[in-house]
Amino acid sequence: MLWSKRLIDEQGEELSLWQKEAYRHFSALMCDEEHPYPCVPGKQGFQTDTLRFGFADDPRSKGASLELSDLLKQYGKISRDTGKYASLVVFFHSDEREEEKPSIEDYRDMFWTLLNRTHELDEGPWPEGIAEDPHHHTWEFCFDGEPYFAFCATPAHTVRKSRHFPYFLLAFQPRWVFDEINASTSFGQKLKKVIRKRLIEYDEREAHPSLKWYGQEDNHEWKQYYISDDDSSPSKCPFMNMQKNLKS
Description:
By secondary structure, the protein is α+β, with helices and mostly antiparallel strands. It has one domain (5-247). It has eight helices and five strands, in the order H-H-H-E-H-E-H-E-E-E-H-H-H. It has helices spanning 5-11, 17-31, 40-47, 62-78, 104-120, 186-203, 221-225, 238-247; strands spanning 51-56, 87-92, 141-143, 146-153, 168-174. A hairpin with a 2-residue loop joins strand 3 and strand 4 (146-153).
């Protein structure tokens, strides 16, 4: 089920305890004016109720990919009707009571495994104009014919605070959202400067070197989906490698 801010405000009592907790943390993050979250479109999307929310099982479970694929399928049908700063935010029931808490590397594996399992459930066509090779600069994660920018935050991130969240969190921004927010528009160029400045102030360190514009020949979107606390990035896209293993 997809939830809006208004629906949660009105019927939030129907949510379970962990779902209420996850949403409360997210709301506090978006409403913090003393330490404003760097993603301006995300904050505006929350304030104008254009974001949609979903809840899913532990990201390591097979059920999580089924739930995520259902949410993406529903969302793809209504995203253009929600507003120009549209995004789907999905909270996962990650258990922080574990004796050995997952590391950043563990969460990276969870993220790419989940994305691959979800891709395997996709019955829609691959969109025209989007490369199928993740190492091509036009590649983007797609589901049911819609390309998305994917964002992951985890409990293990501590240095890059912008990637920290008490629960495993995924956000999917439809590619059409960036039609007016890109390197070819003056608005996009100004917004990028604002976001980059706020990101450096929020994380108290320089932005990750993989954060670039979509479409640049030296840009790879998959490197931006899941970034580490340090400046490192995998040499090969886990999505591509896992797909080869699945096919073999």
